[in-house]
Design brief:
heterodimer, A: mainly alpha, two-stranded antiparallel ribbon, 2 strands, B: mainly alpha, about 60% helix
Chain lengths: ~230, ~110
């Protein structure tokens, strides 16, 4: 799901920097209001966790691979805005240090993986777990559904960014200049891979960690702004 | 909120286990993720490399490309697994530094 350099045309990756810069600023403002100094280690943990989880490439039939992100559990534990910052840090390190995801595509990747995914997951988790006891079964089920939908939402927005490339830019010879496959190919392929396998991984990962915190440190499952 | 020590041990364990994410794709001979092909792979799939893509694909040369060390390339799975663990530790180390720096800057002082 890490878009490399050259896959998106300048109109697309440029526009996404235009979207992400205000979102990063907004996230900083929200986080400044809610994050307490002794919670800083959790920001580092959330970022480190999603970085390491993304190293677990899992093969899928058809000869390609993919991975979970850990983005939804980070959003459940830290809130979606702190998750945006934590996962963005991981994505920037991946791009600059390891060439995993392009430098021009940092904003695009942050939009999909650090914004769409945690926001979707957090919203779904809050909707399902609403008014339920912190220790209830409903909470980890909410985590599973949120993980599943969060990762799939990110996969679909990534596929849409890919798929609009042939519509936007064509060379003089009519051949695509950047990502070559149209929406009709990119969206089904990305969606199918994540609906069938990687989404399930993310769901299991999220549910297990919700259960872990229910057992060991339930206060982490309170909404971030109400935590003391 | 409890301490984070146990969770950091969890991260360390994940780093040590991370070569699973290298070895499994190797066993199944899988290529890269869909939409993350190299220029050679695109050439093979499409028969050509889109012109714009070619121009900016190698814009950035990462110091530790693909979580592998340059001197370890082609030396087999044991070497690349070690490099993978090293990359994981290096990445996590940098993430801790940046997060603490940003976190200090962004967080409120504890009054209580």
């Amino acid at each position: 799901m890490h878009i490399p350099d050259g896959y998106l045309g300048p109109q697309t990756w440029g526009a996404l920097y235009g979207v992400m810069v205000p979102l990063w600023a907004l996230a900083s403002r929200f986080v400044r209001r809610t994050l307490r100094q002794r919670q800083v280690p959790y920001l580092a943990l959330g970022s480190a966790f999603s970085f390491v989880i993304m190293m677990f490439n899992i093969p899928i039939p058809g000869g390609s691979t993919g991975h979970a992100v850990g983005g939804v559990i980070v959003a459940i534990l830290l809130g979606p805005w702190a998750a945006l910052i934590a996962i963005s840090i991981a994505l920037v390190i991946q791009a600059l240090l390891f060439g995993d995801g392009g430098v021009t595509a940092i904003a695009a990747n942050c939009f999909n993986i650090a914004f769409v995914m945690p926001m979707t997951g957090y919203f779904v988790y809050r909707m399902i777990s609403r008014r339920s006891e912190i220790g209830s079964r409903r909470r980890w089920i909410a985590g599973a559904v949120a993980g599943y939908l969060g990762l799939n939402a990110a996969a679909v927005t990534t596929a849409v960014l890919f798929g609009i490339q042939p519509l936007i830019s064509k060379g003089a010879d009519g051949r695509p200049l950047y990502f070559p496959y149209p929406l009709e190919v990119a969206v089904p392929v990305m969606a199918l891979q994540h609906l069938l396998l990687f989404g399930i991984l993310e769901a299991v990962l999220t549910a297990l960690l919700v259960k872990y915190f229910q057992r060991t440190d339930p206060s982490m499952l309170e909404p971030a702004e109400r935590r003391t | 909120m409890k301490g984070t020590k146990k969770l950091w041990w969890g991260i360390a364990a994940l780093i040590l286990l991370s070569p699973i994410g290298l070895i499994l794709p190797e066993i199944f001979e899988s290529g890269p993720a869909w939409g993350e092909w190299s220029l050679e792979e695109i050439e093979k799939i499409l028969g050509f490399v889109p012109a714009g893509l070619k121009k900016i694909a190698d814009l950035w040369s990462a110091p530790v490309p693909d979580y592998n060390l340059k001197s370890f390339e082609g030396k087999g799975l044991a070497h690349s697994s070690l490099a993978y663990i090293f990359s994981g530790a290096l990445g996590v180390g940098l993430i801790i530094l940046i997060s603490f720096f940003l976190g200090k800057f962004l967080s409120r002082k504890d009054r209580d």
